Amino acid sequence: MKAAGGEYCDFCQIGKGCSIYERRPFACQVYRCLWVCGKGEESDRPDRLKIVLDLKAVHFYEEDIVALNLWEVEEGAINQPRVQQIMVANIEGGNVVVCRPYQEEPTYYFPKGVFSADEQQEFIEILKRTPGALGV
Fold first, then answer.
1. What integer pLDDT is reported at residue 136 of this predicted model?
2. CB proximity list for 95: less than 8 A, separation 6 or greater
3. pTM for this predicted structure
């Protein structure tokens, strides 16, 4: 795998799936999105919502901070009301939310009053260097 954390790999056919699914690497075989882990409603299935949700824990200033990744697999899916509900609930719950729009740069949302502007930038850099999603 040559993809860095937070990037689609060369074998990802966005909106369709993995082009090497039968021979995919071990890291891909053990990956589980939140829906597969039992989180969310039937309508939150990635093939229906067109968003894949996963978590990443980042050790930051002696604390483990959870970042919720929203991977858009169809352009515009992030703008759906249900996706916006998920984002707001997580931000209000103290989580960092990372929106990863289809073929665009990610946008980071932080809970109010938790991080200074400098800390936000530092967190983003650490998040980019932290491998893998968090299993639930």
1. 45
2. 65, 66, 67, 68, 111
3. 0.82
Positions of the chain with pLDDT under 70: 1-7, 132-136
The CA-atom distances, in angstroms, between 129 and each of 79, 81, 99, 104 are 27, 31, 17, 19
Measure the CA–CA gap between 89 and 95, rounded to whole angstroms.
Answer: 9
* The two structure tokens encoding residue 30: 């053990």
Query: b or e along 12-51 (b: 16 or more beta carbons within 10 Å of the residue's beta carbon)?
Result: beeeeeeeeeeeeeeeeeeeebbbeeeebeeebebeebbb
Q: Read off the pLDDT of residues 68-83 as tens digits, 9 standing for 90 and up.
A: 999 998 899 999 999 9
| AA letter at 71 | W
| The predicted structure's pLDDT at residue 2 | 54
Spatial distance between the Cα atoms of 106 and 69, rounded to a whole number of angstroms: 9
